[in-house]
UniProtKB/TrEMBL annotation:
Keywords: Cell membrane, Membrane, Transmembrane, Transmembrane helix. It comes from Rubripirellula tenax. It is found in: Cell membrane. The keyword GTP-binding does not apply. It comes from the Bacteria. GO terms for cellular component: plasma membrane. Belongs to the UPF0718 family. The chain crosses the membrane at residues 14-35, 56-74, 86-105, 112-131, 181-203, 215-237, 249-269, 276-295, 341-363, 401-423. Its main location: membrane. InterPro entries: DUF318, UPF0718. This is Putative permease. It is a multi-pass membrane protein.
Amino acid sequence: MMFFGGLIRVFQGFAQAAPTLLVGLLIAAILRNYLGPEGTRRLFGGDRWRSLPQSWLVGMLLPVCSIGVLPILFEMRRAKVKPGAMSAFALSAPLFNPLSLLYGLTLSRPLVIILFALGSLVVVTALGLLWDALSRKTPADDHAQSSGEPFEAGSATDRLIGLRRVFATFVQIARQSTGEALVATVVALTGLAVLAAVLPFGAMQHEVERDDWLAPLKMLLVAVPVYATPMLAMSQLGMMFQHANSPGASFVLLILGAGMNFATPLWFGRHYGWKAASMWMASLLVIVLGLSYAINGPLVPPGVEPAGHTHAFDIYANPLTSYHKIDLASIRGLVAKEMDISVIASMIVLAVVACFGLLFRLLKIDEAWLVKNAKAGSLASSLTADEAAPRRGLDIVVPSGVIGATMLAGLVALSAVACYAYYPSPDECLEEISMARAECLSAANSGQVDHALFWLPVWEDWSRRLEVGTFIRTGRVRPYQRMQGYLIRKKLENLEHELEHDPFEPDETKRVVRDLLATSTRWTSSFRPSK
């Protein structure tokens, strides 16, 4: 049971990491092939005082998770970026991005999310300063040292340009997807397997109550091995405030659960020394725990009674009970339950890229090979050669730094556009909600429990998207709309509990459905334009 539960959690974690891992591989390839070491150092503030806040800001703009940030760290180290800036980027990039930040603003009071963002800035700045101080006292290894792979050796003496550089970018992405990045991903996901083995089904439902002063400490023990995407951490944050759980535990989960994973401190220890990494990790835990207890009282949501339990952390405990039937179909069903179209598409792309990576390794195709076999016109040195032909009209060479900066700016712009795609207009959200509501409630009334439980979280997810979609288009969500959204989600939770009741009670379920329908009518009407 422990083995299969851990295996399911690892598969689920890998599926959730696939989209942002692809983004991280792409950003790392852009840093290497377009910005180069000097441009990368400049992007993260160089040796100036602003390197820490600048790294924090860059991290907030890039849509990566704590696994997707690892390939970027590999290139930052190769470019000899300051360790403090790397620490700031590694912790801040997975915490907030445009999608998760907008989502978080609708989950609880906006002030809470803003304070959490400022708290993360305090954490990463303090740790960055500590890391830079440690690096000055201890002899550092060669940051550009090879990671053991031929492609990382950097034996090339010239830079590629044109289509060769585009192909080199793809080669790096493909090789990394089957190399160091893959190993780091597996290490990161082992934390989920450990938690599934240690925590039985439902073990965290009563452990982070508002009045429990040990709640932040308990969350600390759970959050260190956790891997959580920014969106997952934000949704759990909202559920904790909805159930009046400990705000301090919420902060711990956000910083440690979303900000890092098992692979992060291990990678820092491997390349910068275990003593320095241990001090960095210990300081991180002390700072986060201290801040969590400092905010635990002041950020308690007013007027919300503790629910006494939460399902927000069931995803970290073992998904199997002694009553579950263990076979391939049930395992596949539990894994597929957490996958949507974006995850499936990302996993297909990642699988194709990995196949090319294996092929490139088999054929020994890497950066050095591409430079060695390139024609003279495909190398940067050809641009300054005496015999270089003059370029006319539109046949110009755009500096690699301009191309790289444009690509990174495009990623940021794509994140902003994705906000409008992921959070559609209120009219479209209401159409999706209408379909999910009909499927869920008709199934509940007819006793089709599994079908109703499938559509219930879909309905709840669209309720969140409705609020965010309204916010980014109108600039606000009225208090009445927010309250009706809170009520609909509370009653959806009541319906979920009723459906999970054994034995199933049709009359009581129908009563909950009628109550839910009345609230749903008021809720959807509040988002429709008044006539």
